[in-house]
């Protein structure tokens, strides 16, 4: 990355978004909304909007839900991805253990990609490849 002296405003904004995202993984986010008992799937819901992609202009939305209703609350979380037929309406159930494994893999991959993008090699990267 260039120094701040010759960085464009767009580069500074992009870097600020990246840093804010990194800082945000230290604390669990509050739910975007809490669906009441009169809703079809009562419970907590987190809605995440991705940044605009360079190749498109659609809104990329992820929705993660937990369900409070006793006959539905079976230790699953429900995920709606931007690729769903109806994002925010079509949900795929995930066991909580699988959701945690996916979340940890996403954090590890994001950390690795961020370090690679900025040319930083970490000690654990050498151990992953079997080097000492």
Could you walk me through the main structural features you see in this protein, from its secondary elements to its overall organization?
- The chain has 132 residues and is of the alpha+beta class.
- A five-stranded antiparallel sheet has the order 1-2-3-4-5.
- It has helices at 9-24, 96-117, 123-128; strands spanning 33-35, 43-49, 61-65, 76-80, 92-95.
The whole-angstrom Rg is: 19 Å
Shape: elongated
Largest sheet: 5 strands, antiparallel
> With helices defined by DSSP (H or I, 4 residues minimum), what is the helix count?
3
N-to-C CA distance = 28 Å
Poorly predicted ranges:
none
Q: Strand content of the residues, in percent?
A: 15-25%
| Helical coverage, percent range | 25-40%
Q: Structural class, judged by helices and strands?
A: alpha+beta
Sketch the topology as an H/E string, one letter per element. Answer: HEEEEEHH
